[in-house]
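During the reporting period the student researcher (J.K.) took over the structure-prediction task from the postdoctoral fellow and processed the backlog of single-chain submissions. One of the processed entries is reproduced below for the supervisory committee.
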Amino acid sequence: MTTQHLTRTELTDELQNDLERFRRLITSLNDEEQQTPFTPEDWSIKDFLAHMSHWKAATHALIVACLHDQPLPPVTPSGDEANEKDRKANASQSLPRVRTYWEEVHSRLQHLVADDLNDQKLDEIVRAPWSREETLTICALISDMCGHDAEHFELIEQYFEVE
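J.K. obtained the following C-alpha cells:
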C-alpha cells in the first residue's frame, strides 16, 4: 500500500498519466490484439481494463459515500478467485463498452479529486473497498488505484512492446 502523501495536484497528475497511458495503449493496438488473451491466466487487455474499472468504481463509490456521510457500499470481494469470477462476468461485454466504461470511471475519479477533494480531505481515513478492517487515507486509496493501473499498463506495454 502507498505510504507517501501526495497533494491534490500530484494525484491529478497521476490520474492524467493513467489516462494518457490508456489512450496510447488503445490507439497503438488493434481490437483483435486488445481481445486476445496473453497471460498464463488467459487475460486480455479488455479483461485488464474491465478489472481496473471495477476497482476504480468501487473506490469512487466508497469515497463519495464517505464525503456525503452515506452508508458505505459493501466490501468488494478481492483476490484471484474474485478477480476471475469478475473477469468471466465481464466476458460478454464488448471491447468498445469496456473501453468507454474505463474512461467513464476514470473521469469520475478525476473529477472527484479536482472538484470535491482538497488536501485536508485527502488526509481523511477510510476503509478500503476490499476490506472491513483495512484503513488508509483517501489520498493513499486513490494513489493505490493509480499504482494498480500502472502495474497492469506496464505488463501490457512490455508484452506488446508499446512505448
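The committee noted the following: Residues 8-29+42-160 form a domain with the Four Helix Bundle (Hemerythrin (Met), subunit A) fold (CATH 1.20.120.450).
J.K. will present the remaining backlog at the next meeting.
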